[in-house]
Amino acid sequence: MYPTKPDDLDLAGRRRSLPSPLKHRHPVPSLYFPFQKFKSVARGGTTIHNSTKGVRRMEQQKQIRPRDEAVEKIECYIRRHKLSPQDKLPAEREMCEMWNLNRTTLRSAIKRLTAEGKLYSLKGSGTYVAPPRLERHLQDAKSTTESVRGAGHLLRNVVLDVQVIECNKYLSKKMEIPLGHKVFYLRRLRIMDGAPYMVECSYINYEFCRGIEEYDFTDESLYRVLGYYGVYPDHGQESVGITYATEDEAKYLDVAEGDYLFYLSGTTRDAEDRLVEYCKSVVRADKVRFSTVLRRYSQ
To answer: What pTM was estimated for this model as a whole?
Structure first.
């Protein structure tokens, strides 16, 4: 996945400044295979590659690194004690004494498991077992509310902004409506299982839903309210990229400024193929994973 195009705007409507896909990109971790120079010895017409240094290196690589061993011990502890999501792990000092680990190694293991979405930490409280990541199917046309609650998670919304605005040149192109046309704008912070995970912006053609700004979207589903107006989102398209948390987004999502986030943008149409919604959002990568179904079509 590449960073989103620089001509896209950020969630507040400002121009988002991002590095191009080819310049100034952060290095992406990749597999590294060190090459060992071997000495060739001909014996009986057969070339044999021999290197005592290579053998020693392979033996060293077979040894489990301390951090990997600590990861295995934590995962084994969770399974053996049948810990459930939200259950608390022992204190760091207790785990170090239990497994004869130093504090640096243990924290490195916890950091890795946190990055994998298996643990999470609360300052001053401790380390907890994380709930499974929300799995989002890219072919799914469900609303965020339907996807989250349908997967058994608790969802809460905080409305950050709601207003009726005039369509500018950018929205005119995205929503296929003329300049100056009225648009309903809704910005929400999505909180799943008590943790913020998404800042979502929705732009709705106001012609389809006059008066919609009077609803309280703290509890109401946007798609359900659109149904009150006889508007039923049916299909659409969506793209997924990578972006970086701005200061504003970092504050709402409880991440560090500059952290990687998923960037989603797309449009939704009704059964008559009218463009109903343009939506864009940033999502914490440790809370959601995306999946798709691949099909091979015969010629």
So the answer is: 0.62
